[in-house]
Amino acid sequence: MSGILYRSAVQLISRPTVTSGCRSAVGSIRHSHWFASVLSLKTSVPLRAEPKKKKKVDPRRELIAKERLKKKLKKLEKIPPELIPIEDFVTPAKCFDETRVRSASKLSFEESERRALLLKEWSRYKHSQHQAEKAAIEEALKAQTQALEELKLESEELYKAALSPDNDLFPFKRQGPCYTPPIPNYEAPDGKYNDITRVYTQ
Asked: How far apart are CA 81 and CA 123, in angstroms?
């Protein structure tokens, strides 16, 4: 397009007899930004560029590539999935070090005898405690059966109501004693910690 406009402008300028109207037209063409000067560099759009040729793909190669992918997928399916290890069940390697064995402290004869007598005394105390608890439970069961027999003689309805289970006992909630008394209006801090949890990806 720029070459055609340039040729038409040159033809108008090269004519020998030019009227005043034509001179004004030529002057406007020279000063127009649509036409480049004769001394300036001119560029034009490459109108005769060769289009890119499409590469011919062999269908056999495509089939071979697809078969290779299928084989790879079959191999991956045969491989069992990797199990995530449970670190709590794995003994750390430093625990297998034989040099870290703690030797037992040697006790004197008097100290070993004192501990043996103390252990025997403790076992006798726990045995007597167990026997007392067992006797108390047996007495409570005897008193319960005797009370139920007396209640059956008095009223059959009350006897059946006593044998029916009490659904209000469960869920059973109980709060035991604490080591220290609770502090009123105490807000526990969130604390700071470093998350070192490992993330496993298949």
From this structure: 54
Q: Are 163 and 148 in contact (CB under 8 A)?
A: yes
188 phi, psi to nearest 5 deg: -70, 135
pTM beyond 0.90, yes or no: no
Q: Are 78 and 37 in contact (CB under 8 A)?
A: no
Between CA 46 and CA 97 the distance in angstroms is 79
Q: Tell me the pLDDT tens digit for each residue of 31-65.
A: 555 555 555 566 666 566 667 777 777 788 888 99
Backbone angles phi, psi at 92, to 5 degrees: -65, 155
Q: How many CB atoms lie within 10 A of CB 148?
A: 13
Query: What letter does residue 33 receive in the DSSP assignment?
Result: T
Give tens-digit pLDDT for 65-80: 999 999 988 888 888 8
| Amino acid in the structure at residue 96 | F
Nearest to 29 by CA among 44, 45, 8: 8
